[in-house]
Amino acid sequence: MNFIRVSLSIxxxxxxxxxxxxxxxxxxxxxxxxxxxxxKSYDWLNYLSNQIGSxxxxxxxxxxxxxxxxxxxxxxxxxxxxxxxxxVPKWVRGAKEYAYIKSTEGKxxxxxxxxxxxxxxxxxxxxxxxxxxVHDFEELDSLGRAHIEGKIxxxxxxxxxxxxxxxxxxGGCVNQRYEGAVQASKYGAAGVIVRSMNLRLDDLPHTGxxxxxxxxxxxxxxxxxxxxxxxxxxxxxxxxxxxxEFFFRQNCKQFKDVLSYNVIGEIxxxxxxxxxxxxxxxxxxxxxxxxxHDDGAGVVQSMEVLRLLKETGIKPKRSIRVVxxxxxxxxxxxxxxxxxxxxxxxxxxxxxxxxxAGGFSPRGFSxxxxxxxxxxVLGWQHLFKPYLIxxxxxxxxxxxxxxxxxxxxVLAGLRPDSQRYFDHHHASNDTFDAVNKRELELGxxxxxxxxxxxxxxxxxxxxxxxxx
Length: 468
What we know:
Largest sheet: 8 strands, mixed
Strand content: 15-25%
Oligomer: single chain
Number of helices: 15
Helix content: 25-40%
Structural class: alpha/beta
Radius of gyration: 24 Å
Number of strands: 16
């Protein structure tokens, strides 16, 4: 029996030694092959999406997702798995929203809307008023109280279709969704309707977070998104009849904050256990679909990174954590809580990678880092090229890892092809059937490859000081 144990130990040592004597190219090949032939991410996403479903902060779905992901991480045989408590907002949509356009002839046309996350409800019997269409806050200000008071403000600035980087197009118009109610309330508006953040024309309204900032309760007005097709219809009808009325009813409600958790798993580093590397996505989602792309994909890809490291026999030098953040969508409480606890515990985070742009084909990474660290990554481009990963740009990383930013660490965001992302973002068609298995697995492998490189070679400024 002892002979068998010794023999197995020798075999294990041989496998480990052989792995780390391989070239980086060979290790990349092993990572990608394992992800594509024995991957777990797609099966995990199937369960998360179809058995648990939507996971809005404070909901039963979010609670179930916390328990399930913790159990799955424990099955991987990680060195540590734990829950990190965090208080999160609890907003409930209530009964399905209803809206119609009423013309002067007395005809009504039903349209598709959904309440924006955090909005108050309309009166119980709904809200009906004339409509004023604007395209930005400057136009709103130019109209003033005389033209806005008592009316519903209709924000109708579309995502710019000729912007190739779709997140830039999103950033160019999302302020009307987030701050539209605050701006309109200054002029006595009765409510707000916002064109959905979507590049295509369809009948699906897209929700998302909005804010009242410090507005007192009696100044807050209901805010909803309208589908792009119906936004086009409403705009056309207003040109024909500026006096038409719009009716909508929604029953949402904000409750007191409730307790939830970030889910964390760790492989402890063999040489530098006090240097931490994070890979993560956000566990919460909106409530209209099942959150497969946003951000179920990021959750299971991040879990898969640690599984792939173990499956391929890679023994990390540094401590690598998967963090499944809670409440990215309507508060970012999980990301801030993780960074707060890391600072309190004196933890040194050298690298963090987030996946929160959908489960589409990976194209590369956006990197928030120094020029020296960026040039270090550019030196690895040839390793990624065979896998069609070409995009390496300085820019933003991810919302949940951004609070970890220091002067020397590297924050990164996985950048999949984003051309179809906003067809699903925050809408009822963000469902499991919209995710391609192979694309999801390629993303997980690509993340694992970058984690492997930074663990092996360190961050340029940090590794120079430590003489790794």
